[in-house]
Amino acid sequence: MKIVALLRNTIVILVALSWTLCCGIMGMLLMLIIWNGRKVQYLNARYLWSPLLCFVCRIHVKVSGIENIDKQKAAIYIANHSSYLDILAISRITPTGLFYVGKKELGWIPILGQYMWTVGHFFVDRKNHSSAMMNMRKAAQKILNGRSIVVFAEGTRSSDGRVGKFKRGAFVIAKEGLIDIVPVAIIGAHALLPKKSFFLRSGVIEVKFGKRIPSSEIEAYNENTLADITRQKVIELMTTLQQ
């Protein structure tokens, strides 16, 4: 049975990687036709990439708080991060194109990196603070022009599923640009694919979008306090999902 499970898991991972690369190619081709990164990202992530992966991986995504997403007003979506599956879950249920802030090494991955650059995702050098902040400020300008981004503010995946300390970068640009923040809680992904594991389990991932923290409130806090407040809101959302 262990051999069968290992073989199945290997096949699923290979299919997932292959489909991800295929979607990267299709996304770049779509850009040549549509030439709108937000529309391409939405169509590709919601209707091409995530449905097949969820089917193959036998993952079901539940969503709540969808009414807190305003497709007409861009924001920074701050989510907890405990698994690679977090991106899959958000992509599957979000009714608008969202862009991600990822480590610069992702941009070096063949096809995937080119796709991310082409449609307009953002990369930061986590080892170079000044460069990372410069890129985050560039992202802020895109947000002010209508492009919402997702930031995993812990900076890396949690090893135990708990929410770590939020780094201040996203909150600096939220204050500087007076940009709304939407807290997002994800539970279930860590159990299906934890950090440092390649054994993928089937199951349910739940995503809950919290109420916006409007720019009018953001002015009242410094970035460290704002990070703590947002982290607490994410934890509260996770608690409601676990009840």
Question: How would you characterize this protein structure?
Answer:
The protein has 243 residues and is an alpha/beta fold. It has a single domain, classed as Glycerol-3-phosphate (1)-acyltransferase (3-Layer(aba) Sandwich). The protein has helices at 2-34, 37-57, 85-93, 112-119, 129-144, 169-177, 189-192, 215-218, 223-242; strands at residues 59-64, 76-79, 99-103, 122-124, 149-152, 181-187, 203-209. It has a seven-stranded mixed beta sheet, with helices on both faces. The protein is globular, with a radius of gyration of 17 Å. The model has no long low-confidence stretch (mean pLDDT 91).
Describe the protein's topology.
Layout (H helix, E strand, L loop, with lengths): L1 H33 L2 H21 L1 E6 L11 E4 L5 H9 L5 E5 L8 H8 L2 E3 L4 H16 L4 E4 L16 H9 L3 E7 L1 H4 L10 E7 L5 H4 L4 H20 L1
Parallel strand pairs: 1-7, 2-5, 2-6, 3-4, 3-5
Antiparallel strand pairs: 6-7
Helix pairs in contact: 1-2, 1-4, 2-3, 5-6, 6-9
